[in-house]
Design goal:
The protein is mainly α. Helices cover about 75% and strands about 5% of the residues. The chain has a domain of about 150 residues. Strands 1-2 form a two-stranded antiparallel ribbon.
């Protein structure tokens, strides 16, 4: 009886807000692209000068780079939120991630690289959600009877999205053990949360023998 009393407000909340939650979920997944596109507008000169100085590509190409980032990110966000050409918008944002990874030398910065991988995970969830014919309540939440490709896209998206937690960690490097250790109790909690969500995502998607293989590897 007590559990029923607690579940009733949650069910009532979902009933009232279910038509808004999918839009809110998509907005959360693309919020970084939206913020970055707006920042390109307000920091136009700084971004252009940085690219021009870093790559010595000239004023015109640097301007084209900033313009491509601005239009690509804001345009992709508008298409995803309006549910028009979602797959093309996701592919375009994947291209923006790849372009920024090279242009800003993100490959050599572990935290920014994990951030970009997490952004790619969010796009994978949106891409998987757009492939379904029926309407789901949340972007990236599986429904009954879905195909295996979509399930694995959702698995990859969830795992990559959890990497965003790893950008909040501060690691110390131990030369003798050649391993990284979290240097605070908060960081250790984030590590536990990462592995918890990782194994939950894998267990929901893959079959039991394959899940056992994942556990063995870790």
């Amino acid at each position: 009886w007590g559990l029923t009393v607690l579940m009733w407000p949650a069910e009532e909340f979902l009933r009232v807000t279910k038509q808004y939650l999918p839009h809110l979920a998509r907005l959360c997944l693309i919020s970084t692209f939206l913020e970055d596109g707006i920042r390109m507008w307000f920091q136009w000169n700084e971004q252009r000068d940085y690219i021009e100085a870093t790559w010595s590509c000239g004023y015109f190409l640097a301007t084209c780079f900033v313009l491509l980032n601005l239009i690509g990110q804001l345009g992709g966000c508008v298409l995803i939120l309006s549910r028009n050409f979602v797959q093309y918008a996701c592919f375009g944002l994947f291209g923006i991630i790849a372009l920024q990874t090279v242009a800003y030398s993100i490959l050599w910065d572990l935290k920014f690289l994990m951030r970009n991988l997490a952004l790619g995970g969010g796009l994978l969830l949106l891409l998987a959600e757009s492939r379904s014919e029926g309407k789901s309540m949340f972007a990236g939440v599986p429904s009954m009877g879905e195909s295996s490709p979509k399930q694995y896209m959702q698995l990859g998206g969830r795992v990559l999205l959890v990497l965003m937690f790893m950008t909040l960690l501060h690691f110390d490097f131990n030369f003798f053990s050649s391993a990284y250790f979290p240097n605070s109790s908060t960081d250790f909690l984030f590590v536990l949360l990462f592995f918890f969500f990782f194994f939950k995502s894998v267990k929901k998607t893959v079959k039991k023998p394959l899940f056992g293989f994942f556990v063995f590897c870790f």
